[in-house]
Amino acid sequence: MGLHELSEVRANATLDEAENASGGDQRSESLADPAEKTTQRGGVQLHGLERYINLSSVANFGVIILGSWQTFAFTFQFALTNGGPVSMFYGSILAGVGCTAVGCSLAELASIDPTVGAQYRWSANLAPSAPRFWGLIQGWITTAAWCFACGGPPSLISNIITSLAIFNYENYEPERWHTALIMIATMIVPFILNLFFRRLLNWIEMLGIILHVVLFIVMIVVLVVFGPKSSPDFVFKTLVTDVSGWNNPGICWGLGLLTVTFSVSGFDSVLHMSDEVKKVRTRVPRSIILACVVNSTMLFIFVTVMLFYLGPLTEEITLAPLPLIYVLYGATGSKHATNALIALISLTTFFALFNIFASVSRLVWVFARDNGMPFSNFFAYVHPTLKLPLNALLLVGFVVTCLSLIYIGSATAFNALISLQALALHISYFLPILFILLRKLRGPPPPYGPFKLGIFGIPINIFSLCYLIYVVLWMPFPTLLPVTKDNMNYAGPIFAAVLIGALGHWFISGHKTFQIPINRYE
């Protein structure tokens, strides 16, 4: 165990004693805002992060980064060809309950051990055997998933912009290089804002949550007041099985479910900010649960209202790259109103991207501190003035730029990399929940933090695992038949490549160099 790992274990032990002694609700200001830790490794000075994020910011952080109803609004076209209304409506219920159960399981773990590494450190400490092996494998899975996930919001925004251009200028034909440049341009502002993260955090989170809620209300009112009413049979009984090539009702329903589950994935993002949150053992768990409950509820309401006021499934809606444009245009009859609503909703994606950049850069930083990736010393650097992992943030921006350039050469390759996000994240949730469930069943249970599930813990953990298995089973399926090189679902092969890379790293050097604080929660 290296010097910085020992100091971190001692700091966490001090934090545990302080919060447990006070029930997790109060602790001295000196412990809430410890002096910045500075350590040496390989001749390089490594700085720690300071705790300064308050309750409102951390609560809003998780809600904004998920942005479930906005994500669904911009991606529901994929569910129209598989499953349709039935898959959307009932899927939103299953996804909401499932993600909340998983979120509660992770919240309990966060209260036991609030750490930026989250999934990979929990897996290492809870694994029945080979803790460092499971920690490294889990670290690769989680870090790869979030790095590629950073390309999602820029891709979404570029689709919004090009779709609005097509909507307003019928002769416009977007080129792939247009999309790539838009992706890079949309990344620049959140990236620069992250350099001043500490100063801007409270304002950005407050503006983001206001937009999140106000635009939700506006959308519901616009659809209910102006939208054409659909029948209850359309909402509750219409199962689409004749568009994508799949004709098995069960398969179509399962594939349609993926659009909804994608909208509620990523609630672990706030975990990776743990080293900067005051009263972390209570506030981070509450933020996770709040993000899951609020977004699941809003998603269910939005899905239900939209289906009731969607109108007939015309070619414009079923074949458009962004059908929400034509849903709103059909309701309002005004291009100006449609443009304004779409632009304002897309603005919330900028706030989410700001949060994603912050979260992923911290995850890369702590994985590098544990020697879990190449050039660890470089990416473990924290800028002494900005108080943030600058090199890790630069890596995130570099990944998004590379993904944008890949899109110019091959949209299929780009989509293959982006598709890794949902699969890898769900698997990253599975392992620590499985390990803590085994610990509860075999005993003794780990020393719980201020938040614990109590007698409901084992049932919630079991349901969470069943939900994750069911969702993951559908993720490698191709969404269209017949399968071609362009519509192939590459999530499975890309995930296998990540696993091969992780195993290669372990056997070549990781078993010697990977250093992670392991106390087995004794």
Automatic annotation (TrEMBL):
<feature type="transmembrane region" description="Helical">
    <location>
        <begin position="340"/>
        <end position="367"/>
    </location>
</feature>
<feature type="region of interest" description="Disordered">
    <location>
        <begin position="14"/>
        <end position="39"/>
    </location>
</feature>
<dbReference type="GO" id="GO:0016020">
    <property type="term" value="C:membrane"/>
</dbReference>
<feature type="transmembrane region" description="Helical">
    <location>
        <begin position="288"/>
        <end position="310"/>
    </location>
</feature>
<keyword id="KW-0813">Transport</keyword>
<feature type="transmembrane region" description="Helical">
    <location>
        <begin position="209"/>
        <end position="226"/>
    </location>
</feature>
<feature type="transmembrane region" description="Helical">
    <location>
        <begin position="88"/>
        <end position="112"/>
    </location>
</feature>
<feature type="transmembrane region" description="Helical">
    <location>
        <begin position="133"/>
        <end position="157"/>
    </location>
</feature>
<feature type="transmembrane region" description="Helical">
    <location>
        <begin position="246"/>
        <end position="267"/>
    </location>
</feature>
<dbReference type="InterPro" id="IPR002293">
    <property type="entry name" value="AA/rel_permease1"/>
</dbReference>
<dbReference type="Pfam" id="PF13520">
    <property type="entry name" value="AA_permease_2"/>
</dbReference>
<dbReference type="GO" id="GO:0022857">
    <property type="term" value="F:transmembrane transporter activity"/>
</dbReference>
<feature type="transmembrane region" description="Helical">
    <location>
        <begin position="177"/>
        <end position="197"/>
    </location>
</feature>
<feature type="transmembrane region" description="Helical">
    <location>
        <begin position="58"/>
        <end position="76"/>
    </location>
</feature>
<feature type="transmembrane region" description="Helical">
    <location>
        <begin position="414"/>
        <end position="438"/>
    </location>
</feature>
<keyword id="KW-0812">Transmembrane</keyword>
<feature type="compositionally biased region" description="Basic and acidic residues">
    <location>
        <begin position="26"/>
        <end position="39"/>
    </location>
</feature>
<keyword id="KW-0472">Membrane</keyword>
<feature type="transmembrane region" description="Helical">
    <location>
        <begin position="388"/>
        <end position="408"/>
    </location>
</feature>
<feature type="transmembrane region" description="Helical">
    <location>
        <begin position="490"/>
        <end position="508"/>
    </location>
</feature>
<protein>
    <submittedName>
        <fullName>Putative amino acid permease</fullName>
    </submittedName>
</protein>
<keyword id="KW-1133">Transmembrane helix</keyword>
<feature type="transmembrane region" description="Helical">
    <location>
        <begin position="450"/>
        <end position="470"/>
    </location>
</feature>
